[in-house]
Every structure is written in structure tokens, then in C-alpha cells.
Amino acid sequence: MSEVRKLLKKSGYSSKAIEYYLNKVNVGRIENPSVHLAYTGICGDTVEIYLKIESNIVKDAKFHAIGCVGAFSAGSALMEMVKGKTLEEAEKITEEDVINFLGGLPKPKIHCTCLVKRTLQKAIEKYRDSKCNIYNNKV
After folding, report:
1. Measured between alpha carbons, how far is 131 from 137 in angstroms, rounded to an integer?
2. Is residue 73 part of a domain?
3. Distance of CA 29 to the CA centre of its chain
4. Which residues contact 55 (CB under 8 A, 6 or more apart)?
């Protein structure tokens, strides 16, 4: 086991959270996303979400973060969880769902799930607002 893995394990990260962080799962950008939004939490970390949405279903989801291992692990997990879901199903994913999906996070990093969930919620709201504006401009 590498020193980084040992240190993260000792810090309380699950094996899955460590793998998601080290392998940069779902980290990146989507060209021509349906919606893109960046949000900075009170901790100072910033999460940027890119969603490709077709017929109300999340076809692809990527993110970038300026933050800690917890932000990257939680972001990777949430993006994985929303793929293939309707917007309504994606919105129902809770912070606890993300933590359970990862197999746990260190207690001081639980707030990271709140940050990625809040960023997703704001991205979905932005997407819906843009669809309403398109519709309203055509009427």
C-alpha cells in the first residue's frame, strides 16, 4: 500500500473514497454541457459541476474542485450516482446517500457532501431556470 493510501486510510477515508480520489473518477469537463455551475462553500472549497441532460435524464456528469480529498471523493461519488437518473431522482440523493455510497468519510469531512449536494441542487435549478426562460421567450 502506498504511503498516500496509508495516510488517507489512517485519516478515516474508506477504500472506495480513496480510490475515487486517486483515480479522479468523474473529474473533468463536459464540452457543451446542458448546465455548468461553480459554487464556493463556507469552508472555502469550490465545486464546479458540468451536466449533460437529455429528456430530463442526466446522461453525463463531471466536476472539478478546489478543495480537499473529501470534496473530490464526495464529488466523484455524487456524479457517479446521478448518471442515468432523472433530475427529480438526482435531487432526492442525500448527503447520507453519498457517504454510504463511499463507505464513509472522516467526520470532519462530512461537510464536503453538503457542498457537492448544494452545488448539484444549484446546477439543476439553473438548468430549469434556463429552460423556463427559453419557453417564456417563445411565448
Report:
1. 10
2. yes
3. 12
4. none
Can you give the residue range of the structural domain that contains 44? 3-132
| CATH code of the domain covering residue 8 | 3.90.1010.10
- Enter the C-alpha cell of residue 61: 456528469
- What is the C-alpha R_g of the chain? 15
Helix (H) or strand (E) holding 72: helix 69-82
Lookup result for grid cell 464536503: 112
Q: Give me the DSSP letters along 4-50.
A: HHHHHHHTT--HHHHHHHHTTTTBS--SS-SEEEEEE-TTS-EEEEE
Cell numbers standing for residue 27: 473529474
pTM of the model: 0.92
Residue 137 resides in a domain = no
Query: Dihedral (C-alpha) 130, 95, 106, 38: value to the nearest 10 degrees?
Result: 10
**pLDDT tens-digit map of 20-43:** 999 999 999 999 999 999 999 998
* Number of structural domains in the chain: 1
